[in-house]
Amino acid sequence: MAKNVGILAIDIYFPPACVQQEALETHDGASKGKYTIGLGQDCMSFCTEVEDVISMSLTVVTSLLEKYEIDPKLVGRLEVGSETVIDKSKSIKTFLMQIFEKYGNTDIEGVDSTNACYGGTAALFNCVNWVESNSWDGRYGLVVCTDSAVYAEGPARPTGGAAAIAMLIGPDAPISFESKLRGSHMSHVYDFYKPNLASEYPVVDGKLSQTCYLMAVDSCYKNFCHKYEKFEGKQFSLSDAEYFVFHSPYNKLVQKSFARLVFNDFLMNSSSVDEVAKEKLGPFATLSGDESYQSRDLEKASQQVAKPLYDQKVQPTTLIPKQVGNMYTASLYAAFASLIHNKNSTLAGKRVILFSYGSGLTATMFSLQLRDSQHPFSLSNIARVMDVDGKLKSRHEFPPEEFVENLKLMEHRYGGKEFVTSKDTSLLSPGTFYLTEVDSMYRRFYSKKTKESSLTPAENGVIANGVANGIANGH
Ligand SMILES: CC(C)(COP(=O)(O)OP(=O)(O)OC[C@H]1O[C@@H](n2cnc3c(N)ncnc32)[C@H](O)[C@@H]1OP(=O)(O)O)[C@@H](O)C(=O)NCCC(=O)NCCS
């Protein structure tokens, strides 16, 4: 059986278009500080009319293969996680096959996984399980998380975002799975869902989704601790992992979630927290589960107690989610990418715990061990390839009015056919794919921006869907 199976390489893409949360607050007439301090968000990336989840995933997969010099023939499984529905039948994975078909590789298993923000985790588990299984053929797995998170006008709108992440899976990985250490919580709830197929926007019960998320954190942590005790023969506490990474719809919820873990540790073993913490959390020890989710005093006290540990174990994971927003399936892995960006030189030998949540609901807490590894699959090279600072710095800020205009155009185009986009790629870096046209049969056509031109589709980089030879002449 393959050993130390996990993530060998990562690349991330987020659109260059963004809007500052402070400006959005003013524009929306929200009280000053609501989005920036209240939700804890700094900025939000969004797709303009030339980008979507397919173009972003074409960009990130092409970039990963090029930058780590991976032969496309050596990919044997490709799994996509997304909740941004473009087609009810044809998977995003099949669009990505264009990259591999060119090299004669059509022998690639895997399709898309969907359940709100959890699809990426399902895709990742599928790939890791494949490499660990009898059906593994010795080739790489590839996981893509791609989403554009947009909300109707209202309180949820500032919790949008957009990104795609690609992760290469194989043995002897610098980011290896402790596959037995997983705790899940799955249940039937209507907290956030997308029943209206004519609209990209979800139906969301914001308050319920917050409570469901926190309940899932508690339940997954309990199940995780139980598994840890079963397989490791000792009790788990927060001190057994160096970092905790959360799915991040907005940063405030991450702060609250980590505080819940501290409260859980206190309840399971009060000697795991210091005297001051005991005194602060003691009064809440007898609350029922339901009462504890409603108690603002507990929320405040546990966040206060957790603050120093949060700064140490969670804060380094928050950069991209605060800057880019909720990326749905990509959100957790963008948080993890932030950790690699910030701490790559000191991560070897450390355990990192991840918490994945998808409304509806599905959630899992799982464990990774970080290890030294050879170039190109080293943590420092992953950080270099991702170039998070460079990508954040080269974004273009739009005023909120233009962000809203863009959303209106996207609403109009959603599910539409027979339109061409502006093909304006002035904001895109070379190598980025973009949508050029949706034809009368709803077939979508993409081009790749080359170094030379920003407005004309590339002769040799044209990628088309629905055309047998993969070349869309005239588009
Ligand atoms: C998350 C969501 C419910 C928040 O919207 P809302 O109900 O209008 O926001 P609130 O009134 O609760 O304000 C948000 C926070 O900002 C705080 N706040 C409000 N105004 C503020 C101000 N001027 N300065 C500082 N903080 C402020 C509130 O106290 C609250 O913090 P708290 O949760 O610690 O109490 C909404 O954005 C949403 O539905 N998002 C989509 C669903 C989602 O992401 N769910 C997460 C789980 S998947």
From TrEMBL:
GO biological process: acetyl-CoA metabolic process; farnesyl diphosphate biosynthetic process, mevalonate pathway; sterol biosynthetic process
UniProt keywords, alphabetically: Lipid biosynthesis, Lipid metabolism, Steroid biosynthesis, Steroid metabolism, Sterol biosynthesis, Sterol metabolism, Transferase
Pathway: Metabolic intermediate biosynthesis; (R)-mevalonate biosynthesis; (R)-mevalonate from acetyl-CoA: step 2/3
Taxonomy, superkingdom: Eukaryota
UniProt GO molecular function: hydroxymethylglutaryl-CoA synthase activity
EC number(s) from the headed UniProt entry: 2.3.3.10
Enzyme class (EC, first level): transferase
Domain Hydroxymethylglutaryl-coenzyme A synthase C-terminal span(s) in chain numbering: 175-449
Domain Hydroxymethylglutaryl-coenzyme A synthase N-terminal: 2-174
A Pfam family assignment: HMG_CoA_synt_N
InterPro entries: HMG_CoA_synt_AS, HMG_CoA_synt_C_dom, HMG_CoA_synth_N, HMG_CoA_synthase_euk, Thiolase-like
Active site: 83, 117, 247
Recorded catalytic activity of this chain's protein: acetoacetyl-CoA + acetyl-CoA + H2O = (3S)-3-hydroxy-3-methylglutaryl-CoA + CoA + H(+)
Binding site for CoA: 209, 252, 256
Function statement: Catalyzes the condensation of acetyl-CoA with acetoacetyl-CoA to form HMG-CoA.
Entries under NCBIfam families matching the protein: HMG-CoA-S_euk
Family: Belongs to the thiolase-like superfamily. HMG-CoA synthase family.
Name of protein: Hydroxymethylglutaryl-CoA synthase
Provenance organism: Glycine max
